[in-house]
Protein backbone atom coordinates (compact mmCIF):
# COMPACT_ATOMS: atom_id res chain seq x y z
CA UNK A 1 0.00 0.00 0.00
CA UNK A 2 1.44 3.37 -0.99
CA UNK A 3 2.51 5.45 1.99
CA UNK A 4 2.09 2.59 4.47
CA UNK A 5 4.68 1.19 6.87
CA UNK A 6 2.55 -1.53 8.47
CA UNK A 7 4.14 -4.89 9.27
CA UNK A 8 2.83 -6.42 6.03
CA UNK A 9 3.97 -3.58 3.76
CA UNK A 10 7.43 -3.67 5.34
CA UNK A 11 7.63 -7.46 5.58
CA UNK A 12 10.71 -9.30 4.36
CA UNK A 13 8.61 -12.39 3.57
CA UNK A 14 8.34 -12.53 -0.24
CA UNK A 15 4.86 -14.04 0.11
CA UNK A 16 3.72 -10.63 1.40
CA UNK A 17 5.01 -8.85 -1.72
CA UNK A 18 1.90 -8.80 -3.91
CA UNK A 19 1.34 -7.45 -7.41
CA UNK A 20 -2.14 -7.19 -8.86
CA UNK A 21 -3.83 -10.46 -9.90
CA UNK A 22 -3.07 -12.23 -13.16
CA UNK A 23 -3.05 -15.95 -13.93
CA UNK A 24 -1.03 -17.82 -16.54
CA UNK A 25 -2.22 -21.20 -17.79
CA UNK A 26 0.34 -23.26 -19.65
CA UNK A 27 -1.26 -25.64 -22.16
CA UNK A 28 0.01 -27.84 -25.01
CA UNK A 29 -1.28 -25.16 -27.39
CA UNK A 30 0.47 -22.25 -25.67
CA UNK A 31 0.20 -19.82 -22.77
CA UNK A 32 -3.17 -18.34 -21.84
CA UNK A 33 -3.16 -15.21 -19.68
CA UNK A 34 -6.12 -14.19 -17.53
CA UNK A 35 -6.08 -10.39 -17.12
CA UNK A 36 -3.27 -7.91 -17.78
CA UNK A 37 -2.32 -6.14 -14.57
CA UNK A 38 -0.33 -2.89 -14.40
CA UNK A 39 2.65 -5.01 -13.23
CA UNK A 40 2.31 -7.46 -16.11
CA UNK A 41 5.77 -6.79 -17.55
CA UNK A 42 7.39 -7.37 -14.15
CA UNK A 43 5.36 -10.52 -13.60
CA UNK A 44 6.29 -12.04 -16.96
CA UNK A 45 9.96 -11.20 -16.50
CA UNK A 46 9.97 -12.66 -12.98
CA UNK A 47 8.46 -15.94 -14.21
CA UNK A 48 10.60 -16.01 -17.39
CA UNK A 49 7.53 -16.18 -19.66
CA UNK A 50 8.68 -15.88 -23.26
CA UNK A 51 5.35 -15.87 -25.07
CA UNK A 52 1.66 -15.20 -24.52
CA UNK A 53 -0.60 -16.91 -27.06
CA UNK A 54 -4.01 -15.65 -25.89
CA UNK A 55 -5.61 -13.41 -23.25
CA UNK A 56 -8.93 -13.79 -21.41
CA UNK A 57 -10.43 -10.97 -19.31
CA UNK A 58 -12.53 -11.19 -16.16
CA UNK A 59 -13.52 -7.49 -16.26
CA UNK A 60 -12.27 -4.04 -17.21
CA UNK A 61 -11.06 -2.48 -13.94
CA UNK A 62 -7.65 -0.82 -14.07
CA UNK A 63 -5.94 -3.38 -11.84
CA UNK A 64 -6.92 -6.15 -14.25
CA UNK A 65 -6.54 -4.36 -17.59
CA UNK A 66 -3.96 -1.60 -17.75
CA UNK A 67 -0.92 -3.76 -18.49
CA UNK A 68 -2.34 -4.43 -21.95
CA UNK A 69 0.24 -2.32 -23.79
CA UNK A 70 3.02 -4.66 -22.63
CA UNK A 71 1.51 -7.32 -24.89
CA UNK A 72 2.82 -5.49 -27.96
CA UNK A 73 5.88 -7.72 -28.37
CA UNK A 74 3.98 -11.00 -28.62
CA UNK A 75 2.33 -10.48 -32.04
CA UNK A 76 5.87 -10.18 -33.41
CA UNK A 77 6.57 -13.75 -32.30
CA UNK A 78 3.09 -14.95 -33.27
CA UNK A 79 3.43 -13.34 -36.69
CA UNK A 80 -0.09 -12.01 -36.30
CA UNK A 81 -2.54 -10.45 -33.83
CA UNK A 82 -2.86 -11.70 -30.28
CA UNK A 83 -6.26 -13.36 -29.62
CA UNK A 84 -8.09 -11.59 -26.82
CA UNK A 85 -11.37 -12.86 -25.32
CA UNK A 86 -13.63 -10.40 -23.50
CA UNK A 87 -17.20 -9.21 -23.04
CA UNK A 88 -18.66 -6.27 -24.95
CA UNK A 89 -18.21 -4.08 -21.83
CA UNK A 90 -14.51 -4.93 -21.61
CA UNK A 91 -14.01 -4.37 -25.33
CA UNK A 92 -15.61 -0.94 -25.08
CA UNK A 93 -13.19 0.10 -22.31
CA UNK A 94 -10.21 -1.33 -24.20
CA UNK A 95 -11.14 0.70 -27.26
CA UNK A 96 -11.46 3.86 -25.15
CA UNK A 97 -8.41 3.44 -22.92
CA UNK A 98 -6.15 2.21 -25.73
CA UNK A 99 -7.65 4.21 -28.56
CA UNK A 100 -4.26 4.59 -30.26
CA UNK A 101 -4.27 0.85 -30.95
CA UNK A 102 -7.38 1.22 -33.12
CA UNK A 103 -6.82 4.70 -34.59
CA UNK A 104 -6.95 5.14 -38.38
CA UNK A 105 -3.57 4.31 -39.84
CA UNK A 106 -2.48 2.23 -36.83
CA UNK A 107 -2.43 -0.86 -39.04
CA UNK A 108 0.45 0.74 -40.98
CA UNK A 109 2.65 1.09 -37.89
CA UNK A 110 5.28 -1.68 -37.75
CA UNK A 111 4.26 -4.71 -35.73
CA UNK A 112 5.69 -4.55 -32.21
CA UNK A 113 5.26 -0.80 -31.84
CA UNK A 114 1.57 -1.13 -31.01
CA UNK A 115 -0.38 -4.07 -29.61
CA UNK A 116 -1.95 -6.06 -32.45
CA UNK A 117 -5.15 -7.55 -31.10
CA UNK A 118 -7.82 -9.90 -32.40
CA UNK A 119 -10.79 -9.23 -30.13
CA UNK A 120 -13.23 -12.10 -29.68
CA UNK A 121 -16.52 -11.45 -27.90
CA UNK A 122 -17.57 -13.77 -25.07
CA UNK A 123 -20.74 -14.08 -23.00
CA UNK A 124 -21.99 -16.62 -20.47
CA UNK A 125 -21.62 -19.51 -22.91
CA UNK A 126 -18.52 -21.76 -22.70
CA UNK A 127 -15.83 -21.05 -25.28
CA UNK A 128 -12.51 -22.55 -26.33
CA UNK A 129 -9.05 -20.99 -26.21
CA UNK A 130 -6.11 -22.92 -27.70
CA UNK A 131 -8.16 -26.10 -27.41
CA UNK A 132 -9.06 -25.52 -23.74
CA UNK A 133 -12.70 -25.15 -22.68
CA UNK A 134 -13.43 -22.05 -20.59
CA UNK A 135 -16.74 -21.86 -18.74
CA UNK A 136 -17.60 -18.31 -17.63
CA UNK A 137 -18.87 -18.04 -14.06
CA UNK A 138 -21.06 -14.94 -13.60
CA UNK A 139 -20.12 -13.09 -10.41
CA UNK A 140 -21.17 -9.90 -8.68
CA UNK A 141 -18.40 -7.39 -7.91
CA UNK A 142 -20.21 -4.59 -6.10
CA UNK A 143 -22.40 -3.01 -8.77
CA UNK A 144 -20.33 -4.58 -11.55
CA UNK A 145 -20.91 -7.86 -13.36
CA UNK A 146 -17.68 -9.83 -13.80
CA UNK A 147 -16.66 -13.32 -14.84
CA UNK A 148 -14.76 -16.01 -13.08
CA UNK A 149 -13.65 -18.93 -15.23
CA UNK A 150 -13.67 -22.68 -14.88
CA UNK A 151 -11.00 -24.60 -16.78
CA UNK A 152 -11.29 -28.32 -16.22
CA UNK A 153 -11.76 -28.80 -12.48
CA UNK A 154 -10.18 -25.47 -11.52
CA UNK A 155 -12.21 -22.30 -10.93
CA UNK A 156 -10.67 -18.85 -10.73
CA UNK A 157 -12.98 -16.29 -9.11
CA UNK A 158 -11.27 -13.01 -8.31
CA UNK A 159 -13.20 -9.81 -7.47
CA UNK A 160 -16.34 -11.27 -5.91
CA UNK A 161 -18.85 -9.72 -3.54
CA UNK A 162 -21.54 -12.34 -4.13
CA UNK A 163 -22.06 -15.48 -6.21
CA UNK A 164 -25.41 -15.57 -8.05
CA UNK A 165 -27.63 -18.61 -7.61
CA UNK A 166 -27.13 -19.68 -11.23
CA UNK A 167 -23.35 -19.81 -10.77
CA UNK A 168 -23.12 -22.28 -7.87
CA UNK A 169 -23.73 -25.36 -10.09
CA UNK A 170 -20.72 -24.29 -12.18
CA UNK A 171 -18.53 -24.71 -9.09
CA UNK A 172 -19.43 -28.33 -8.35
CA UNK A 173 -16.77 -31.03 -8.36
CA UNK A 174 -13.75 -28.73 -8.23
CA UNK A 175 -10.22 -29.85 -7.52
CA UNK A 176 -8.98 -26.28 -7.00
CA UNK A 177 -11.00 -23.16 -6.14
CA UNK A 178 -9.24 -19.77 -6.24
CA UNK A 179 -11.42 -17.16 -4.54
CA UNK A 180 -11.32 -13.48 -3.61
CA UNK A 181 -10.60 -12.64 0.06
CA UNK A 182 -9.70 -8.99 0.47
CA UNK A 183 -9.50 -8.58 4.24
CA UNK A 184 -10.05 -10.49 7.49
CA UNK A 185 -13.67 -10.31 8.64
CA UNK A 186 -15.31 -7.03 7.71
CA UNK A 187 -17.39 -7.33 4.53
CA UNK A 188 -16.41 -5.01 1.67
CA UNK A 189 -18.88 -3.57 -0.86
CA UNK A 190 -17.02 -5.19 -3.79
CA UNK A 191 -15.05 -8.12 -2.36
CA UNK A 192 -15.41 -11.15 -0.15
CA UNK A 193 -13.66 -10.96 3.19
CA UNK A 194 -11.91 -14.10 4.47
CA UNK A 195 -14.97 -15.18 6.43
CA UNK A 196 -17.20 -14.96 3.35
CA UNK A 197 -14.62 -16.75 1.20
CA UNK A 198 -14.45 -19.59 3.71
CA UNK A 199 -18.24 -19.88 3.64
CA UNK A 200 -18.13 -20.19 -0.15
CA UNK A 201 -15.30 -22.76 0.07
CA UNK A 202 -17.29 -24.79 2.60
CA UNK A 203 -20.25 -24.83 0.22
CA UNK A 204 -18.18 -25.74 -2.87
CA UNK A 205 -15.97 -28.27 -1.04
CA UNK A 206 -13.00 -28.32 -3.44
CA UNK A 207 -9.98 -30.53 -2.82
CA UNK A 208 -7.86 -27.37 -2.43
CA UNK A 209 -8.68 -23.67 -2.15
CA UNK A 210 -6.51 -20.57 -2.45
CA UNK A 211 -7.38 -17.06 -1.27
CA UNK A 212 -6.42 -14.25 -3.64
CA UNK A 213 -6.74 -10.47 -4.13
CA UNK A 214 -5.58 -9.96 -0.53
CA UNK A 215 -5.00 -6.49 0.90
CA UNK A 216 -2.23 -5.45 3.28
CA UNK A 217 -4.43 -6.25 6.27
CA UNK A 218 -3.60 -9.92 5.66
CA UNK A 219 -0.14 -11.19 6.60
CA UNK A 220 0.69 -14.49 4.93
CA UNK A 221 1.94 -16.54 7.91
CA UNK A 222 -0.62 -15.13 10.33
CA UNK A 223 -3.44 -15.92 7.92
CA UNK A 224 -2.08 -19.38 7.13
CA UNK A 225 -2.24 -20.34 10.81
CA UNK A 226 -5.96 -19.53 11.00
CA UNK A 227 -7.13 -21.35 7.89
CA UNK A 228 -8.70 -24.81 7.82
CA UNK A 229 -7.01 -27.76 6.14
CA UNK A 230 -7.07 -27.50 2.37
CA UNK A 231 -7.22 -23.69 2.32
CA UNK A 232 -4.11 -21.53 1.81
CA UNK A 233 -3.33 -17.92 0.92
CA UNK A 234 -2.15 -17.58 -2.67
CA UNK A 235 1.12 -15.75 -3.31
CA UNK A 236 2.91 -14.26 -6.31
CA UNK A 237 4.54 -17.06 -8.26
CA UNK A 238 2.29 -19.83 -6.89
CA UNK A 239 2.14 -22.77 -9.32
CA UNK A 240 0.10 -25.95 -9.44
CA UNK A 241 -0.60 -28.61 -12.06
CA UNK A 242 -4.06 -29.71 -13.14
Which properties best describe this structure?
Metallo-beta-lactamase, Chain A, 242 residues, 7 helices, globular
Spatial strand arrangement across the major sheet: 6-7-8-9-10-11-12
State the fourth-level CATH superfamily of the largest domain: Ribonuclease Z/Hydroxyacylglutathione hydrolase-like
**Highest CATH level, the class of the largest domain:** Alpha Beta
Distance between the termini: 33 Å
> Would you identify the CATH architecture of the largest domain?
4-Layer Sandwich
What helical percentage do the residues reach?
10-25%
**How many helix segments?**
7
| Fraction of residues in β-strands | 25-35%
Which descriptor suits the 3D outline?
globular
Rg estimate, integer Å:
18 Å
Structural class: alpha/beta
CATH topology name of the largest domain, in short, is: Metallo-beta-lactamase, Chain A
**Tally of structural domains:** 2
Q: Biggest sheet: strands, sense, closure?
A: 7 strands, mixed
- Uncertain runs are none
Task: Please report the total strand number as a whole number.
Answer: 12
Structure overview:
- The protein has 242 residues and is α/β, with parallel strands linked by helices.
- The chain has two domains: 20-123, Ribonuclease Z/Hydroxyacylglutathione hydrolase-like (Metallo-beta-lactamase, Chain A, 4-Layer Sandwich); 132-234, Metallo-beta-lactamase, Chain A.
- Helix content is 20%, strand content 25%.
- The strands form two sheets. It has a seven-stranded mixed β-sheet with strand order 6-7-8-9-10-11-12. A five-stranded mixed β-sheet has the order 1-2-3-4-5.
- It is globular.
- The mean pLDDT is 97.
